[in-house]
Queue: 3 jobs
Job 1
Amino acid sequence: MNAETAPVPTPGKGLKIAMILVRSLMGLLFVFASVTYLFKLFTPPPLTGAMKVFNDGIEASRYLMPTVKVIELLCGLAFLSGRFVPLAAVLIAPIIVNILLVHVFLGPEGLPLAVFLVLANGFLAYFHRDRYQPLFRA
């Protein structure tokens, strides 16, 4: 088959492949982060300064981080399986916003990953925008 007769991929197909890649990366990231936290697989590095104070406050609540990590695990599994992706993108959005704000104000070393999560979740929301339209009807 030469270049003139080869089928040209449609933009929709490329967008779908990008969506699968993005949601898979997000899924792997959230599953890894939640499993390592929930099963205490790694000892986290010691925190200092404002990040330590913030983390100590969250850990003092005793319920917040396990709840967040369970939501991350469920959303990560949804992203990896490809099922309930629009719901998972909505559920994970407030967690991603908090990840971004923590890294903007307290720990800029994690900012690139936080920006990736914001852009990736925005891309997933854009890809599934037709699923969200009923939410915006009066």
Job 2
Amino acid sequence: MSRRFPLQPLVDLSADRVEAAERRLQALDAERRQAREKLAQVEAYRVEYRDRLQRSLAQGMGVMQVRDFQAFLARLDEACMQQGAEVAARDAAYLEGQKDWLEQRRRKKAFDALSTRHARAEDAREGRLEQRLQDDHAQTMLREAKRDRDEAGG
């Protein structure tokens, strides 16, 4: 009978940790994509608003309207910068999550290799034990056959 791998709880734990790291990485990727989409929306709105300013300037507009447009564009620029910083933070968090996931996978593979090695050693041990039992059985049968021959002939 095979002996249980003594590090099996660690194998199981490493598998759980890989799964948890995968879930975290997926969540971080979703957050990263959302931040990028939001940045793209803000940038598109800024471009659209600049175009509106250019069209309005071409048609003629008052100084107060120009200042209002410029103030709003400044706020859009600031929003783009803030959202760009958010994208950078999400990218950094994703990279950290990816490093963690890779590390958890590496550990799991190491434990899996130990488990495989243990299973092979157990198979070899059982094979040797089975061979020994067969050899013992064959020896017993030979002794009995010899004893029966000796008794019959003797």
Job 3
Amino acid sequence: MNNQQTQIDTLKPYHRITNRLGIALSMLCAIHCLATPFLAVSLPFLGSYFETNPWIEFVLLGSGLVFGGGITLHNYLKHHHNLPVLLVVISGFSFLLLAHFFHGHFMETPIIVLGAIMVTFGLYFNHKYAHNVCKTCKVPHAH
């Protein structure tokens, strides 16, 4: 046992990283192989349940609005003061809410896609601009 530890310690950093990566990938493969049959059987049932239960969609949309909108508003007020980012997130969530009035209509899917893209880009740029603020002078910088 001590001899194995000595061999591991004498490996180059590159080899230690690749050994750990190999072990991690093997573990992920095992988990994937165990979980795939269960997911393949249960996902169609779960998908039909989500489609027939509108409350799940409202809960997901509401929690996204509370957390994503809250983080964006906080970062806007405290960090980056970038109004277009805030407006894109608000507009995206508005499109997602608007899509519920077009349920079953041919415009429902394009409105949902547009809203999801707007929210995604808005949250991405919110994160980007909030972390580009200098910690000492509180001024945005392009790093």
